[in-house]
Specification:
The chain is an alpha/beta fold. It folds into 2 domains: 130 residues, Aspartate Aminotransferase, domain 1 (Alpha-Beta Complex), CATH 3.90.1150; 222 residues, Aspartate Aminotransferase, domain 2 (3-Layer(aba) Sandwich), CATH 3.40.640. 40% of the residues lie in helices and 15% in strands. It is built from 13 helices and 15 strands. Helix 8 links the parallel strand 7 and strand 8. Helix 4 packs parallel to helix 10, helix 5 packs across helix 9 and helix 11 runs parallel beside helix 13. The protein is globular. The structure holds pyridoxal-5'-phosphate (PLP). Pyridoxal-5'-phosphate (PLP) binds next to helix 5. Pyridoxal-5'-phosphate binds next to helix 5.
């Protein structure tokens, strides 16, 4: 079966954040929209079919996840990542950001230290600061070869921390952490009694040459690790608000799930459960085709920057459909850079400062779109810079 990733789908007016919030966020809507991290591709036909079949049943009441949901997840984790999980480890949440907040609220106290590696997806900051926990940043080191962990700083921060929120793979820098890095992070967390929350939302979106390893699958790290997983990014079903947290340690699980129950977040929605199951059981061929398309987009983007935008720099992302572009050599302030991209190039990107420490001078571009849109966006950026 072949899948079509080239057709341009008009999403305007569908109530999607990426297009329908352009005016609200950028003050104009005549922009090519390459910001919010969802893709402009139609979902896998196997998921559409499963949703249609679900609608054949005319009642949409409260849900109980049945065996196929857990079997689908267990099989996916085993076959893709070699990680054997048990059904009772799994708790369900409406999203990964809710799960991060649930974990912080149920496992830490006000003013407890929580480590994040910056620049990073901005809700990581808010999950710490809005819950009155102490933000401990471990800025990633950036050089010609890309992003690396500052181990001395990480150890110093973990010494003062109760929790480490790991982005694995990392948004926005696109790193897939290696076995050595994960082992070293986990060993430090064990040494200092720090709970790991590993956000693995981008785990399925890894390019050839890299391999995602769930940190919880290593050594004895499962005992103090929560792993958040969802097909929402990889299968483009974020609007169905369905994810899971895999928590092998029964005490940690009981505390997180206690709050999850109290807030009634565990019930889920009928379509999300159906799509989650269909993604992990029937849609692997679609994902494989998607990854070929995304990898070609990624390579095209990197070649374009190297050959036609010499003032910009990018390290090839090892994962995600997000490109983290260093624009600092343009010599603009962040406001000027934003103005150039939005009002001159007429492209909507995420500005670097949204990702906090280390974000200034950068732009994040979402290349989960038809190649023709990506090409047009890059040509507009090239013309604006010239
Ligand atoms: C690293 C990371 N975590 C979580 C999310 C959002 O997860 P959810 O919509 O399940 O809360 C995103 C979305 O871009 C993300 O990049």
């Amino acid at each position: 079966m072949t899948y079509d990733f080239d057709t341009i789908i008009d999403r305007r007016g569908s109530g999607c954040f990426k297009y329908d919030a352009l005016n609200m966020m950028y003050g104009r809507d005549d922009l090519l929209s390459l910001w919010v991290a969802d893709m402009d591709f139609a979902i896998a036909p196997e998921i559409t079919q499963a949703l249609q079949e679900r609608l054949q049943h005319p009642v949409l009441g409260y849900n109980l996840r049945l065996d196929p949901f857990y079997d689908a997840l267990g099989h996916w984790m085993q076959s893709r990542f070699g990680w054997e999980i048990q059904r009772e480890w799994v708790i369900s949440t409406p999203g990964i950001v809710p799960a991060i907040n649930l974990a912080i609220l149920s496992l830490t106290q006000e003013q407890d230290g929580i480590v994040i590696q910056t620049p990073v997806y901005h809700p990581f900051y808010e999950a710490v600061t809005a819950n009155d926990r102490k933000l401990l940043t471990n800025p990633l080191l950036y050089d010609e070869s890309g992003y690396h962990i500052d181990w001395i700083d990480l150890e110093a921060k973990l010494r003062q921390a109760k929790m480490f929120v790991l982005c694995s793979p990392h948004n926005p820098v696109g790193r897939v952490w290696t076995l050595e890095e994960l082992t070293r992070m986990g060993t430090l967390c064990r040494q200092y009694g720090v709970i790991i929350l590993s956000d693995d939302i981008h785990a399925d979106l890894v390019y050839s040459g890299s391999r995602h390893i769930p940190i919880s699958s290593l050594e004895d790290f499962a005992d103090f690790t929560i792993t958040c997983v969802s097909p929402s990014k990889s299968f483009n079903i974020a609007g169905l608000a369905t994810s899971v947290a895999i928590i092998p340690n029964p005490d940690i699980r009981a505390r997180v799930n206690g709050l999850n129950f109290k807030l009634h977040l565990y019930l889920g929605n009928s379509f999300g459960i159906t799509a989650f199951t269909a993604a992990y059981t029937k849609s692997e061929a679609w994902l494989d085709a998607l990854m070929i398309y995304l990898q070609a987009n990624r390579d095209y983007l990197c070649d374009f920057i190297a050959s036609r935008l010499p003032l910009l720099r990018i390290n090839k992302p090892e994962s995600t459909f997000l490109a983290w572009i260093d624009c600092s050599a343009l010599g603009l302030t962040d406001t000027e850079l934003d103005d150039l991209i939005t009002n001159k190039a007429r492209v909507a990107l995420d500005t670097g400062p949204k990702f906090g420490v280390g974000g200034s001078g950068f732009m994040r571009l979402n290349f989960g779109c038809p190649r023709s849109i990506l090409t047009e966006a890059l040509e507009r950026i090239e013309a604006a810079i010239k």
